[in-house]
Amino acid sequence: MVDKTNGAPTGNSAMTADRPEQIRNVALVGHSGSGKTTLVEAMALTARAVNRAGRVEDGTSLSDYDEIEHRQHRSVQLSVVPVAWAGKKVNLLDTPGYADFVGELRAGLRAADAALFVISAAEGAAGIAGTTRALWEECAAVGMPRAIVLTHLDTARDEFDVMTETCRNVLGGGSSETILPLHLPVYGPKNPDGHRPVTGMMELLPHCVGDYSSGTEVRGEPTAEQLPALEEARNRLIEGIIAESEDETLMERYLDGEEISLATLVTDLERAVARGSFHPVLFAAPAPEGAKQGLGTVELLELITGGFPTPAEHTVIAANGAEPHPLRCDPNGELAAEIIRTASDPYVGRVSLVRVFSGTLHADTTVHISGHGLEEQGRDGHETDERIGAITAPFGKQQRPLGQAIAGDIAYVTKLAHAETGDTLSSTDNPLRIEPWSMPDPLLPVAIRAHSKADEDKLSQSLARLAAEDPALRLEHNGQTHQLVLWCLGEAHREVALERLRTRFGVQVDVTDYAVAFRETFAGKATGRGRHVKQSGGHGQYAVCEIEVEPLPEGSGIEFVDKVVGGVVPRQFIPSVEKGVRAQAARGLTAGYPLVDVRVTLFDGKAHSVDSSDAAFQTAGALALREAAAAAGIRVLEPLAEVWVVISDEYVGPVLSDLSSRRGRVLGTEPHGPGRTRIHAEVPELELSRYAIDLRSISHGTGDFTRAYTRHEPMPNQLATAVRGEKTRT
Predict the structure, then answer these.
(1) Which of 191, 431, 530, 672 has the most CB atoms around its CB within 10 Å?
(2) 621-652, pLDDT tens digit by residue?
(3) Which pLDDT tens digit goes with each residue over 416-437?
(4) Which string of DSSP letters, residue by residue, matches 21-72?
C-alpha cells in the first residue's frame, strides 16, 4: 500500500486489505462528458498507482477494458480502479454517464458505499442533467453518502461559486447548510483563448492558500483580495458543519465567540459526510505546467479515506429460504458475494466482477450460485454449484492475482461458466440469495436475424451469453410476429450490443423493421360458400359448405358452431370444415394477420359418397371463410399499450402534446414526488417503437416510462390500408 506522503507504483502486485475498515468503495457518477474517467486517472496518478494518465480516446485509459469504448470515445461499462491512500485501499468505480448504460451505473452503485457526483462547470446548469438529479434523489432515498466534484473550471461557463449555488438549488432544494464547498479555486490570468486556468486553491478550514503556479505547492496566507471570499465561505461552512454536529453545545459555543478547533470541525465534518447528511463540494482541475498532479485530487482522496464510510457501514439483505436478514460485513462470517458485472475474456473465458458483502471468497473453491431474482423481468432463475478459478484485482486491462477477497472488497473471479450478473455466490452448506437491485426496463425494440447460415448456428448461444452479461438487455422470441427481438435502453445501447455480437462472438446480424402484432376481425356479419370440386381421373374431390360469420367481443377467439341438419354434411367431415376455417384464420385474410373474435356457424353443405374427403372439406371451409370476409369487410386490430410516464413538471405540456400526436388517450395525471408528474395514457404500440429515444429528447433526460399490453382495438381505416399495403410489399 502507498500512503499520502510516500510510496511507489504497485507494479504487478495487487493491493490488499486485511479488514473491511481499510477499504473504501466509491462510485463516480455524472453526465456523459463530465470528466469521470479523467478524474479516476488523475487520482490514480496522484496515488502513484500509475506513472502517467491515459485517455479513453486513444485506448490507454485504466477504465478501458473494452475496445468499443475508445472507438466510441466514451465509457460504456463499469470499471474498477483500486488505488492506495493513507493506508486504505480505495476502489474507484468509474460508471458510464450516458443514459443508455444506466444498468452499468446501477451495478456500480450497488458495489459502492458512497458516490462522487462529477459535474462539468463547462456546461453550467445544463451539466446537472435530469438523470443526475434523479440519481441524486435515488441515493438520498437510501441514505448513500455523496459529495460533489466540479470539473472543467478552466473552461467554465459559470464560475465556481455560481456552480456551487446551482448545485445547492438543483440537488439540495435550495438548502444552504448541506451542500457547501470545502475549497475555493484560485484562477490565473486568461490564456490567449480566453480561458482562465486554475492555479491554486483557498482551503477554508485551515484558512490558507495553496499556490501551484510554480509547479509545486506553496502555502501561504490569503491576500487582501482573497480574504473576503474566503472568510464568507469559511463561516458558512463552519455553521453548516456545526448544524450537523452530534455535539448540541457546539453551536451555542460558536455563537458565543468560542474558536472551534480545526480537529473538532474535521471530525464532525467527516461524521456528517459518512452519515449522508452533509455533501461537500470540491473541484478538480488539470495540473499547472510543471506540476506532477492535478489540483484537488489530494483533497478528494483525503475526503474518501477520511469522510466516506467503510463497507462495514453498508448492509444488504439476504435470505436462505427463511426470513431475509441483514448481512454483517465480517470476513469470518457467512459467505455472500454478488456478481456486479460479467464479461467474456478471449483467453480466460467468462470473468465475473464480484462485491463481497460477507465472509471471505477464496480461489479454487466450490461455491453455490443463486439466481439473480430477476424472473419478473423475463430472465430465468437458476441454482447450481461451481468451482471458481483465480481471484484477481482489476486494474484496467491487467488482472493482478489475489489469493482471496475479504468482506467489503471487489475482485474478479474466473471459470464461473453459468453465473450471470446479479447472481449471489455463497457457501454450498448455507446457500444465500441477496435481494436484487432494481434494473431499468429496456423499452427500445430491435428486431434481428442472422446474416448467414453460419451466423445462425452461433446466434442463439451468443445471445444467451450477451444477455447473461447485461441484465439491462432483454431477449424475446415473439411467437406472434416470429421475430427475434433485442430490447435495449436506447440507440447507443443497441449499437454496443450489436458490436459485441460481431467482435466478441463473431456473429453478424441484420437489423429488420420491428413488427407489431396486428390482428384481424370481421367488420360485420356475412355468409360465405366454399365449393371445392375437382375431377382428374380416379377419385375426385368434392366438398361444399356454407357458413355464417359474425364478430364477437374482444378476447373471444374463434368460436365454431355446428348447425347442420339432415346430414347434408356428414358428421365425420364437420371437424374437417372447422380445421380448414381455423387454419385460414391463423394465416389471415387480407395481410397475413391472424383472424380473431368471430363466431363461424356451419349451417349447410353438400357431400359426395365417393369423392368427399377430409382434405376437400378443409379446403372448402377455408374458401367459405374467405368469401365471407370479402362480403363483410375486414378490420385491422392494433395492440394498445397502457403507458405510465414520470416527468418533471416543466415538461408535462410537451409530453402531453407528443402523446396526442401518437394517437394516445390520456387517462389522467397525478403528482409523483416533488416536482414530478405521473401521466397515465393508452397509446397504440405502433407509435411506441422509438418512444424511449423520443421521450429522452423531449424531457432532456428527466423522463422515464413503463408500458404494458392492455388489448387490441380497431385501427383507423386510412392507417389500416397503409399497413396492409406495407405488409403486401414486404
Answers:
(1) 530
(2) 999 999 999 999 999 999 999 999 999 888 99
(3) 888 888 899 999 998 999 988 8
(4) GGEEEEEEE-STTSSHHHHHHHHHHHTTS-SS---TTTT--TT--SHHHHHH
